[in-house]
Design brief:
Helix content: 25-40%
Radius of gyration: 20 Å
Order of helices and strands: EEEEHEHHEHEHHEEEHEHEHEHEHHHHHH
Distance between the termini: 33 Å
CATH class of the largest domain: Alpha Beta
CATH architecture of the largest domain: Alpha-Beta Barrel
Shape: globular
Number of helices: 16
Oligomer: single chain
Largest sheet: 8 strands, parallel, barrel
CATH superfamily of the largest domain: Aldolase class I
Number of strands: 14
Length: 388
């Protein structure tokens, strides 16, 4: 691929997640419907780091649902098998971790306490859960104990909203429970993905947590953003989510930046088309179904071709592709020599949404303690479907 010289200062930030050393301090954030084996493999082909699965629901994993069992499969090339668990119940969380460890299915377990999606928070999960601090502590403790030598990390948000911040207390509880690292998306659930991430909160977390690595997440659209986050916050590593949508080569840029190599990948339109085709090919392998793979790749069209001179009519046809042969025919219409367009291809990706009042269980904010009624409701409401 085409490359360009960058002007960022050199950085060297080694990172280990428990016993797992990372050659660069970069983690792929779990994203529902995105970070399946196919996308993880594609990102690894460009760069280095830790690549985490889609969210796997503990209840569904304990019940061995077919979809959950499919989502936890890793390709043989994935040498560090990283799985994100979602749970609202300590017992189920522990059972899920014991299953993963007992069956030798994971090398690292991440726990989701940051999801802002209403179907998750209204059940007391995701970003809503750390408000119930002791309940949060029990879930983390049970998972860490069940995982044994397998490192457990947590990913969280600042809190529910600006009046109900939870991240510092929850992080201290997680540190005490024995987690191997803590990642913070520097927004509240109410902010969803809108506005700008509050990187100062990452700095405060780093000052508060001293025994394990602190990872920063939010508004990393380029390698320069990642280096700036480390500089401004002192965090030990970065977590990349929406910034890599349609840009798996971002992990190449990140590896170069953290290894003090002053080059950045600037793909031509033809090279973008090749990456898009490779992604589809890996999805066929993942789903073992060409039709399903082609349906799944459709949502990536806008991300891959952002900023490039690809007409709306061709984009629309790519977004309704039904076979690899049809895809090849359409990609053959691209002007492969079109150069990297610069700024139009960079910046924010994915839907930011707008601030909104989080959906929560009844009377959730009335107390930091989980009431008997809430405990029963939360346990019964744990999601049975994995992948978000």
């Amino acid at each position: 691929m085409s490359t360009a010289t960058a002007t960022a200062a050199p950085h060297e930030t080694p990172l280990s997640i428990g016993p797992i050393p990372l050659s660069v301090p970069v983690v792929l954030a779990p994203m529902a419907g995105i970070t399946n084996t196919a996308f993880r493999r594609l990102c690894r082909e460009y760069g280095a780091g830790l690549y985490v699965s889609e969210m796997i629901t503990s209840r569904a994993l304990v019940e061995r649902t077919p979809e959950s069992m499919r989502l936890i499969r890793h390709h043989e090339s994935e040498t560090t098998r990283s799985i994100q668990l979602y749970s609202v119940d300590p017992v189920t969380a522990g059972e899920a971790a014991r299953f993963l460890v007992g069956e030798g299915l994971a090398d690292h377990i991440d726990m989701n306490f940051g999801c802002p999606v209403p179907k998750v928070t209204r059940k007391g999960g995701g970003a809503a859960l750390p408000w119930k601090l002791e309940h949060f502590r029990r879930i983390v403790e049970q998972t860490v104990q069940a995982a044994g030598d397998i490192p457990v990390t947590v990913k969280m948000r600042k809190g529910i909203d600006s009046d109900h911040l939870t991240y510092l207390e929850a992080a201290k509880a997680a540190e005490g429970a024995g987690v191997a690292a803590i990642a913070l998306h520097a927004r509240t659930a109410a902010e969803f993905y809108s506005g700008h991430a509050d990187w100062s909160a990452i700095g405060k977390l780093k000052e508060t947590i001293t025994s394990v690595p602190v990872l920063g997440n939010g508004d990393i659209w380029s390698a320069e953003d990642a280096l700036r986050m480390v500089d401004e916050t002192g965090c030990d590593g970065i977590v990349v989510g929406r910034g890599c949508l349609g840009r798996p080569w971002l992990f190449g840029d990140l590896a170069a930046a953290f290894e003090s190599r002053h080059v950045r990948i600037q793909p031509s339109l033809g090279e973008v088309g090749d990456a898009f085709r490779r992604h589809a090919e890996l999805l066929v392998d993942f789903f073992d179904d060409e039709g399903r793979a082609c349906r799944d790749i459709r949502k990536h069209v806008a991300w891959y071709f952002k900023g490039y001179p690809v007409g709306g009519e061709l984009r629309a046809r790519l977004a309704s592709v039904e076979s690899l042969q049809q895809m090849d025919d359409l990609l053959g219409e691209l002007d492969r020599d079109q150069p990297y367009p610069g700024a139009p291809a960079e910046g924010q990706r994915g839907r930011a949404g707008t601030p909104k009042k989080p959906a929560l269980p009844e009377n959730w904010l009335a107390s930091r303690e989980l009431s008997t009624a809430q405990s029963a409701d939360v346990a019964a409401a744990e999601l049975h479907n994995s992948g978000g």
